[in-house]
Design goal:
It is found in: Membrane. This protein has about 150 residues and is of the alpha+beta class. It has 4 helices and 6 strands.
Length: about 150
């Protein structure tokens, strides 16, 4: 093998050994960040804008909401927002019309923006509402049969 053949062999081996980078997906990350003034707002915006892959940063100080769009991962955006010294979390609210019981104790939050409730699990493990699968409980108080009430 000559010098040209050796270089070709080395370049082939290098191209095989290079790990391919995983392409990040375009995401929209919503955060709740505690901001009191324009200085806080600018600090958060500048910090998040400096991340690689970020296309835009929108801030609604009244709702304490930051929306970051770009080729970023939500956990990294959250970590970067916390690095500013501000209290930050993933946006915990969803529109109230997407929840079956928006005024249940788990979902209702006085601090939520208008039209939003706290994001909760579909089937809470602990709650005040009992769900029975036994049909005898359902038929105990029947409107079709007024004499069906067995408690009286």
């Amino acid at each position: 093998m000559g010098v040209g053949g050796t270089l070709e062999y080395i370049s082939e081996m290098m191209s095989i050994e290079k790990p391919k980078k995983k392409k990040k997906q375009f995401n929209t990350v919503e955060l709740k960040v505690r901001m009191d003034c324009e200085g806080c707002e600018m600090k958060v915006k500048n910090t998040l804008s400096s991340m690689s892959g970020v296309k835009s940063v929108e801030i609604n100080r009244k709702q304490q909401k930051v929306t970051v769009t770009g080729y970023v991962e939500p956990n990294k955006v959250l970590k970067k927002a916390k690095s500013t010294g501000k209290k930050a979390e993933i946006w915990p609210y969803i529109p109230y019309n997407l929840v079956s019981q928006p005024y249940a104790a788990q979902a209702y939050d006085k601090k939520a923006p208008p039209g939003y409730v706290r994001r909760v699990d579909q089937y809470p493990t602990t709650g005040t509402v009992a769900r029975y699968e036994d049909p005898s409980y359902v038929n105990m108080f029947s409107d079709d049969n007024p004499n069906a009430c067995s408690i009286m």
